Amino acid sequence: MNEYIESLRWRYATKKFDNQKKVSEEDLNTLKEAIRLTASSYGLQPYRILIVEDPEIRKELQPASWGQTQIVDASHLIVFCTEREVNDDFIDHYLENISSTRKVAIEDLKDYGNFMKSKITPLDPDVKQNWSTRQAYIALGNLLSAAAQLKIDSCPIEGFSPEKYDEILGLKEKGLSSVVVAAIGYRSQEDQTQHFAKVRKPAQELFITI
User: Fold this and answer.
1) Closest CA relative to residue 179, chosen from 162, 154, 202
2) Domains in the chain and their CATH numbers?
3) Cα 82 vs. chain centroid, distance in angstroms?
4) Which residues, 6+ apart, have CB-to-CB distance to 71 below 8 Å?
5) What are phi and psi of 58, to 5 degrees?
């Protein structure tokens, strides 16, 4: 069996973490790089990632997370946030990054920039937020897969109050909105969920070839 597939079979949404085990700085940097390298629409990455280590802040976040123990017991809490303003200035900043990275004159990117601006800037705020959120979820998926490869446990969490997270973490002032959370660390031996068989649709039901 392919090693990557085995890693995906190994992972599960960890319900109880061992709060004495921490993800190493080296492995954390690998996970951060996996997130950074994630594909996104136009390559714009309309999100930011908060890595919450402070135990006191995490205690504040727990009641806003339906009381889930992963919030305080996991090694790290990762909050995926969308940018509140994906506008012409945001796109211009991205073009500057392209110019610097690829050694291309910024003038040569004008048409590409205008195309992006014509498609993204006029979007209704709710539509733009939905689009940005989908991009963040791609990054979340990459994190979960990369963590599994490193035999680091994870749990994606949608059960939380974004408004409370935004308030506690001061996200509005940062121009951000929380959209999804992931806890990473190492499973507790007391977590019975790890012994459950993974339930997924059979391939013949999931895939349609036309």
Assistant:
1) 162
2) 3-86+121-206 (3.40.109.10), 90-114 (no CATH)
3) 10
4) 58, 61, 62, 65, 77, 157, 181, 183
5) -65, -30
Determine the length of the chain: 210
All residues at 6 or more sequence positions from 105 whose CB lies less than 8 Å from its CB, including other chains: 99
Sheet (strand 153-157) strand order: 47-52, 76-83, 176-185, 153-157
For the chain, the C-alpha Rg in angstroms (whole number) is: 19
In the chain, what are the helix, strand and coil shares in percent, each to the nearest 5?
50, 15, 35
Task: Compute the average pLDDT of residues 189-205.
Answer: 97
Give the Å distances, CA to CA, from 109 to 45, 122, 161: 18, 20, 40
Return the residue matching tokens 């806890």: 183
The stretch 175-188 carries a mean pLDDT of: 98
Whether residue 168 contacts residue 57, with contact meaning beta carbons closer than 8 Å, is answered with yes
Quick check: pTM over 0.90?
yes
Q: Give the whole-angstrom CA distance, residue 123 versus residue 117.
A: 10
